[in-house]
Amino acid sequence: MLHEFTLSRERAMINFTLKYCDTTQKLLNSYGFRRVVESFVKQVLEKDEGVIYDYYVDHFGDEDKVVDSFIEVLKLLTVFNMEEIVAVDSKYSRYFEDKDLFIEVTELLFTYWKRLERYTIVRNNRLGNGLQNARFIQANEMFNDLLLSTGRRVQATVNGYSTRIFRQSVAGGNAGLTLNDVNWNCPIEYKGLASIPFISTVLFQPPYITYTKRNTRDGVFQEHKQNPLLNIVLNEDDWFVFPAKVGNMLTFVYFHKDFMAHGIGLANLFEIATETEYVGKKPDMIYVFGYPDGYEEKRTFYYKDTKNDILIGYANYCDEIDYFGYMKKMLLTLHNVKQIEQRRLPIHGAMVNIVLRNGRESNIIIMGDSGAGKSESLEAFRTLNKKYIRHMRVIFDDMGYLKKEENGTIKAYGTEIGAFVRVDDLDPAYAFEQLDKGVYMNMDKVNARVTIPISTYEIISRGYPIDYFLYANNYNESDKKILLYDDLDKMITVFEDGARKAKGTTTEKGLVKSYFANPFGPVQEREATEVLVREYFKDMKDAGTKIGEMHTSLAIEGRTKDGPLEAAEELFNLINE
């Protein structure tokens, strides 16, 4: 980021490396503050507060002069009282003729500022610049206090008394990033990406709530026959790289600054790689998210760069991709395609390792496409925790993969350290518990989502044998919630059909099917996946893994909460036998 401050699409970017305001005068004299006031006057006063706008414009002459005078009077109020300011220049008396109106304007300004997504950035010139890294959290805290204290000082001067109730809200950045310039093993085809700084640390100021242009995802990502990244050059002022460990795949995620919320959300979903893991290294996958290629329609696809052995993901700049599902699901598609190439079987589902109160331990996979009841089943497990479970460990909550080990056993691994779940499907108490670490999206809309960390990279990459492998049936009622099959062909048919009733997480409606309940790799690589399914299912059956269906009833009206709970309880009783 080359500028000290930018403001676009209701996102403010503050570059602490180029400009750090540690005094009130520096703050009020800064380019960033003026830019915010200009936007506030145009976007709030002129559009929504016409009476206030006309009150000041009629006196000062035009919008620019209102901005100038407003900033100047704020600076004066931090040093002088109102009488002294009017004595210096009588034109400022307009602000104090109606003190209540002036206080209202300052509060509107503060509200406008807090409504923006606000990001602070420190860019180190080289790795290991310890001073900036060590002071980053402290600098954010001091900046937050400076904004609050400046506002209180102005209001106290106008009111003639200090406030006696203090609310320590988040006035600085919602999130912060430290960036490093990195040399990685960059093939010639991707030299246009080489100058983009890598994110090394992420700072959240909870609660982190964001609103996006979309709140559902549509379609599947298909393979493209031409490399979309050839000859493109990314502007280092507009782009960031999040070096993610997607399962066991090193992935460089390039995202445009206008989609910062999705880039920041990655920190709750994937382990961030360390410098030793990517400096001088070539990634397994590259995803460019939000490239302005001149097309107005959505373009999302992947490309197999066999020459460099890198899988490329691509999403162009448009409102359609402004939903975290487009960030997450493309990364999972790339991951799954790579795993299939390495003869591993991707699983769209959830997995837990549980120890019951009687001491029995079991590893359970619940498979199903979006809305089938994977995450809701985990939530039911949490609800029944005190009654049945001594310990529960989530291995994955959306995507994992099966791997045949050298000794012939099959083990399951996770892909993500977090979960991207519907807020409505979480127990309210648990949802509130996550306020201090969740990234919340579109909280007042259908399919409101939260991205929360649920595990560690060490846990998800350990590898676990499988005791129960269950397909999540969300559309059929059944007296028996857990149905186990002995017939291998029956097992494969149920899982490959991938049937579910759509629940509003995508644009699909009614009873739909997706091959192997996984449109993120197996659908695109179906021929290779069919071979793997038969091989892995036979080996699991021979090893004693119990395979069948779990009736979650999630899509049946009135059964959203009770269905997963009853199925979980029956499963625990089955394990106890």
Protein model, in words:
This protein has 577 residues and is of the alpha/beta class. 35% of the residues lie in helices and 25% in strands. The chain has 18 helices and 26 strands. The radius of gyration is 27 Å and the shape is elongated. It starts with a strand and ends with a helix.
Name a few traits of the molecule:
single chain, 577 residues, alpha/beta, eight-stranded mixed β-sheet, seven-stranded mixed β-sheet, 18 helices
- Which stretches are low in confidence, meaning pLDDT under 50 for 5 or more residues running? 127-131
Counted beta strands: 26
Helix count equals: 18
Class from helix and strand fractions: alpha/beta
Shape label: elongated
Q: What is the beta-strand fraction?
A: 25-35%
Name the average pLDDT.
Answer: 90
As a percent range, the share of helical residues equals 25-40%
> Nearest-angstrom radius of gyration?
27 Å
Q: Major beta sheet, specifics?
A: 8 strands, mixed
Oligomer: single chain
Q: Give the distance, in angstroms, between the N- and C-terminal Cα atoms.
A: 60 Å
